[in-house]
Amino acid sequence: MAIDRYAEKQEVPVDPETGKPYLNTVAALAIAPNGVGAELSDYVSQAIEVIRESGLPNETNAMFTNMEGDLDDVVRVAVAAAKKLAEQGYRTGVTLKLDIRPGFEGQLKEKPELVNKILSEQTEQPQA
């Protein structure tokens, strides 16, 4: 199946194991409790542990943990990570942004590489 990065619509692949459409999803997820003081890292790390143990590709930065996988898996992990704090009794805030892009995989790595390539090419072109 040919993938055209600039096409508005892609063919949706089917997972051979489940027979269901595979909806690749990149998620940016931030989970934090309210009312626990100024430093949230001890709590946030509990949610991040759930994400890391999920087996989904992920990376953590200063504001979000990004993960990638089938839509159902990504949402399941996001819910489990939020519950890690909420089930302890904390009021828990969740920010979740999803980029659902059928036909694509490996976007946690490929997206930044593409942006860096474009910027590099722009830098190499002489300015008029």
Write the layout of secondary structure elements.
Blueprint: E1 24-33, H1 41-53, E2 58-60, E3 65-70, H2 71-86, E4 92-100, H3 107-124
Antiparallel strand pairs: 1-3, 1-4, 2-3
The radius of gyration computed from the alpha-carbon positions, rounded to a whole number of angstroms, is 18 Å
Helix and strand run: EHEEHEH
Briefly note the structural class of the backbone: alpha+beta
In total, the number of strands is: 4
Residues in helices, as a percent range: 25-40%
**SS field, number of helical segments:** 3
Distance between the termini: 40 Å
Main sheet: strands, sense, barrel: 4 strands, antiparallel
The strand line-up of the biggest sheet is 2-3-1-4
Brief overview:
The chain is 37% helix and 22% strand. The protein is of the alpha+beta class.
Looking at this protein, list some descriptive labels.
3 helices, 22% strand, single chain, 4-stranded antiparallel beta sheet, 128 residues, 4 strands
Describe this structure in words.
Helix 1 runs antiparallel to helix 2. Strands 2-3-1-4 form a 4-stranded antiparallel sheet. The chain is built from 3 helices and 4 strands. The mean pLDDT is about 95. About 35% of the residues lie in helices and about 20% in strands. The chain is α+β, with helices and mostly antiparallel strands. Strand 2 (about 60) and strand 3 (about 65-70) form a beta hairpin. It has helices spanning about 40-55, 70-85, 105-125; strands at about 25-35, 60, 65-70, 90-100.
